[in-house]
Structures are given as C-alpha cells and as structure tokens.
Amino acid sequence: MKHRRSASAADTGNCLRALLLRQAWPLLLMTAVAMVLARQSAELDIASVFDAAGEIRPVQWLAAVLATYCSFWAFGRYEAVIHRLSATNVAAGYARTAGIGATATAQLVGFGLLTGSLARWRMFPEMSLWRAMRLTAAVSLSFMACLAFLIVTGLAFSSLLSPSLRALAAVGLLVMVGLSLLTLWRPSRLLHLSLPSLRAQFRLLFLVAVDTGFAALALYVLLPQHALPPPILFYAVFLLALGAGLVGATPSGVGPFEFLCLTCLPALPEAELLAAIIGFRLVYFALPGVAALAILAVGPHVRHDAAPKATLAPAIATDVPPLKSQAFSYIADRAEAGLMRQGTFELLCDARSRPLSLVAETGQSLIMLSDPLRRGENTLHTLDTLAQAARDRLRVPILYKCGARTAAAARRSGWRVLPVAQEAWLIPDSFDILQPAYRQLRRQLRKAEKAGLEIREARNETLPISEMRALVEDWAAERGGARGFSMGRFCGFYVSGQIAFLAYKDGQLVGFVTFHEGHTERTLDLVCHGPTAPQGTMHLLIVTAIQAAKTAGVARLSLAAVPRDWPLPRPLGALIRRSTGAEGLRRFKSSFAPHWETLYIAAPGYGALFLGGIDLADRITRPREGKAPAGTS
Fold it and tell me: How does strand 416-426 pair with strand 454-459?
C-alpha cells in the first residue's frame, strides 16, 4: 500500500512539472503581445476609453449577461459530451457544472491546460491528475478543432476576401471534411485510435457554434450602436480573436484578442471598441469566474451522479471474468454467444444490471449481435435498452444477424429491417447419412476415408494449440488475412472454451473445425485446413461433429450463416460473392441438406443502416484485437 501511494505521488509530481513547463509559451507570448500593445496604445487617450464605457446602457449590459448565460449553457453541454466520449461515467448534470467551473476558472486565470486540469482534478477527486489533464486536453483540442472548422468555413464563404483567398479556404475546408470522414473508414495505421463518431462530431460542432455565437453576441451588444459592423464580419473576427486568445493561453485571452480586434475592425473607434472589450471581460470572464470559484470551493460535495440510473440507462460491462463469460455463453439461447470470449463483444445490461445481449461499440454504431441472450426475454425492452445505450455513446443502434422474432419486434418499433444472411442448421438426431439428400456428401466422405484421415475430438487441455495456430497462420497468409467480428479468430483462450474436431493424416494436423457450445445448441465457428488436406476433409469433420452432437443429445447444430445473395447486377453480384466466399460456403453447407433460416439487419433508419453496414464491413475485413486476458493468445 505504501509503495502504491508513493508511486501515485510520483505520478502526480511528474504531471505537475509537465504542466508547469508548458506554461513557458503563454508567458513569452504575453510579454511579446504586451510590448506590441504598449506601442499601439501609446497615443490612446485612456480617459476616453472609460468615458465610452460609461456610455454603455443598462439594457446592453443585460443583453450581454443573457448572451453569456446562453454561451456557458452550450459549453456545459459540450463538456458533458466530452465526458460521454471519454467514458468517465459522470452524470451529465454534474459534468456540465464541473466543466463550466473549470473552464470559467481557466478563462479568467489563463494558462488553460494547467488551471483547467487542476480545477477538474478538484471536482473529480477519483481521477488522477494525469486523467484530469487528459480530459482537459480533450476538451481544449476538440474545441480548437471545431473552432478552426467554423473559421475556415466562414472564410470560404466570405464575400469580403479575394477569390484566391476564398479558394484557399475552400481547399482547407475540404481537407477538414475529409479528415472528419476518416472516422468512417480509418487508414490501417489509425485503427488503434479511438475517434469520435460523426454523430459526436456534429454535436460538438453545433455546441461550439452556439457557444461562440452567443459569446460574440455578448461583445456585439456592448459596441456603440452608431458603428456596428456587419454581424457576419464581426463573428468571423471574433472567432479569429478567440482562437488567438486560446492558443496564447493568456488570462482571459488578454493581448492576442485585443490585437486582432483592433487590427481587423479598423472602422470602429478604438476607444469605444476597447471600452466594449473591457465590458465584455467583466461580463463574460469576471462574473463566470466568481461563480466558478464558488463551484470549486464547494467542490465534489455537490455531486449527484451516485443517484440510481433511469430504467433505460444501460451499462456495458467490460470486466466480465472469463469463467462468468463462459457461463453466460453456455446458458444463452444461441451458442454463438461464446463469441464474448473473443473480447470483441461486451454485455449490454439494463438499469438492474441484468445482461440482455452481446454488443460491440464500433466507429459509428453500437451493434447488437443476434437475439437477446435468453429465450423469453422482452425483445422490445432489449431494443429500447440498446437504443438508450447507443444514444449515451453518440452512436446509432444496429441489430445484426437477428432472427425473425427480433426482426418483427424491431419492425413494430419503426426500425428498418433487411435480410442480411441465411443460417444453415440441422437436427443431429434426424441426421441420416444414408438418405438420398446426402448423395454428394457420401461421395466426399469416401474420398476422405480413402486418404486414411484420422478424426479426433478435443477440448480444453487436449487441444494441440501450437499445431492449430501454425495451421491458422498459413491459412490466413494464403487468403490475405483472417476475418473477424462475428467470425471467431484463433486464440488459445478462445478455443479452450469450444469443442474441436481435428483431422490428421500420417500423424500431421491438416485441418480442424471448432464449435461454440450452448445448453441446447452447438454452432460452427472456426474452419481451417492446410494445403495437404485431402478432398473431403472438411466434410468428414462436420459429419463427425454432427454424430458427436447426436450422441451428446444436442437438439440443434448450426453450420453458421452465409451472406445473403443480394439482387445486384450480375458482374457486381459475382464480385461480391467471390470476395466474401459466399458461393463456396453455400455450396459446402448445402451438401449437409440443412434447414435455412433468414437472418436480418435492422436500424432506426436507412442512414443508420448505411453507417452500420460500413462499420460491419470494416470490423469483419479488418478485425481488431480482442480483450482476452493477458497471456492467453
């Protein structure tokens, strides 16, 4: 315990030193700008500035105060969005209050990263200083990015600039839009980054526009009525001045803000402009600063995020122990729930912490796999919980590979539903290889038996993990990589919870299949064979698995799903079938004369379906590493 405390104190000290070192730039900038302003104001009559300030009418002060309130109202919601994206699990109301307090303090005192981090550390004592600094950096950087987007957009459509400058701004705007769209399909080198969804980006941009719009209004109403600049021009200048003040990190933006206002608004009398800026600083910085000091003085005692969650305030459990996850997957209605051992999926729980389904948080979506975990579960409640969880994470809810009953419930809720795949399944007890429907299958089995294959059943410690891994690596290298997401990826910990059937030829492993196991069902998962596997190897493995399921009394055996054959033009349809391998999979599974069940994809709208489809294609073709326990690969 003593060692842990000393390590924590050392981390805090390192963070404080790093924060203090970062304040050298604001100090140097303050000195440089102060020298420039001193030269500019040498001939300015200070008395005339105070006289102009005295001419500001009470109604102007009241309008400035109201605009300031609206600006901080928007920023509080902006802070709450950052908390949601950072998964701090802080109630939105408290996040808004603490964010306003921290930001108002940082604006008043300056040195934003230092003061903002310390203020948030004060309001969130459960956070380390390092995490408070990261939260402050996330708020600052995202705000600056949104501010830059607004500035570039204004410049691109400004009629006051020359065509060449507008064209340059338009190019910059296109670049920024392109960078934003990278969240749809990130380059391979950025796959490890957690980027905000498009929905979150739009929300943040809108709140920054509201925040800065009312902040500009708070200054605009204090300007002399006889010399008001055009609102659009003033807003553009205000954004530039605000950005300069934020980059400078000086107290209240003093220096860079005045310099840009005086330079870009030459038509305004200097004395009256400076008087309005002084009034703006009193209303927009001093008053909120006093309120912020009160918030910080009260501190975390005003927290109310410990209140019980609403009925539809789900939590995604990310810390399910291995044994517990295996138990969940075994009692689930569908054996495919064993995918939770892969680490790609998490448990969606309702307000009573009751697990409802498997979900995966992707770039734009929160994707629920298959149906609710337990048969008889209230499907509408599960859908509502999924939708609430997606809203909490600023993503769209998606159902993927769900059955007809869940799809019907989604359709009743107004969701858009499309068939996406077909699952092949059979009843082991009624499987009879001598029936006419299995004529082609018997031919494949004779070829495999003639080659002298030996089939072994294995699980847990009897699995030849190293041999299986070598076979999988060769298989993946030959086919350009393995698929993932709803298709399992080889991992020692993962397959140890499955039942495997191994094919040997002359003592060498040449192929294997694995199955998820549930209380009433087994589902085909991993399928792999090497180049030396004789023809019919995989058919013999599946038949052996069916017979083993029959002996074990398994009621249903699923051969997993194949993609839907979409009604597309012939060349495009053929290309998709080749790229997905759907045609070969369907032909292989059809040899077992299975039943075919249609599976569906569903979302609240076609736009959400489009985003979910992109996420699914990304995760299936470019699978991420799961969260399996360390040392279990």
Answer: unpaired
Last residue in a domain, options 371, 391, 422: 422
- Other CB atoms within 10 A of residue 262 CB: 19
Name the range with the highest mean pLDDT among 46-55, 74-83, 190-199.
Answer: 74-83
Q: Same domain for 528 and 588?
A: yes
CATH of the domain at 569: 3.40.630.30
Six-digit token string for 453: 């294959």
Residue 496 structural domain: 425-596
CATH number at residue 386: 3.40.630
Q: Per-residue pLDDT for 205 more than 90? A: yes
SS3 for 514? strand
CA distances to 150, 154, 159, 181, 263 from 167, in Å: 16, 12, 12, 21, 23
Count of structural domains, the chain:
3
CA distance 580 to 23: 54
Using one digit for the tens of pLDDT, what is the confidence trace for 539-569?
Answer: 999 999 999 999 999 999 999 988 877 655 5
Note whether residue 397 is domain-resident: yes
Q: How far is CA 192 from CA 114, 187, 200, 362, in A?
A: 28, 10, 19, 12
483 and 402 assigned to the same domain: no
pLDDT surpassing 90 at residue 599 = yes
**Burial class, 253, CB count within 10 angstroms (exposed 0-12 / middle 13-18 / buried 19+):** buried
**What is the per-residue pLDDT for 266?**
81
Residue 134 lies in a domain: no
Q: Are residues 11 and 159 in the same domain?
A: yes
Which segment of 178-182, 201-205, 236-240 scores lowest on mean pLDDT? 178-182
Whether residues 538 and 393 fall in one domain: no
> For residue 559, is it within any domain?
yes
Tell me which residue has tokens 């009312």.
214
Q: Beta strand 521-529 with 556-563: parallel, antiparallel or unpaired?
A: parallel
Q: Against a cut of 0.85, is the pTM above it?
A: no
State how far the Cα of 87 lies from the Cα of 102, in Å rounded to an integer.
19
**DSSP string of 540-608, one letter each residue:** HHHHHHHHHHHHHT-SEEEEEEEE------HHHHHHHHHHHTHHHHHHHHHTT--EEEEEEEEESSHHH
CA 133 to chain centre: 21
Indicate if 474 and 532 belong to the same structural domain. Answer: yes
Sign of CA dihedral 366, 370, 374, 378: positive
366 in a structural domain: yes
DSSP string, 390-416: HHHTT-EEEEEEE-HHHHHHHHHTT-E
Q: Pick the residue with more confidence: 256 or 437? A: 437
Q: How far is CA 624 from CA 155, 361, 483, in A?
A: 40, 12, 10
Give the total residue count for the chain.
633
Q: For residues 85 and 43, what is the distance between their CA atoms, to the nearest angstrom?
A: 50
- Are the CB atoms for 394 and 86 separated by under 8 Å? no
Query: How high is the pLDDT of residue 38?
Result: 55
Residue 308: what pLDDT?
35
Q: Give dist(CA 373, CA 323) in Å, integer.
A: 17
Q: Which two tokens stand for residue 70?
A: 């609206």
Answer yes or no: is pLDDT of 309 > 50.
no
| Residue at 610: amino acid letter | F
Residues in contact with 167: Cβ distance below 8 Å, sequence separation at least 6, in sequence order: none
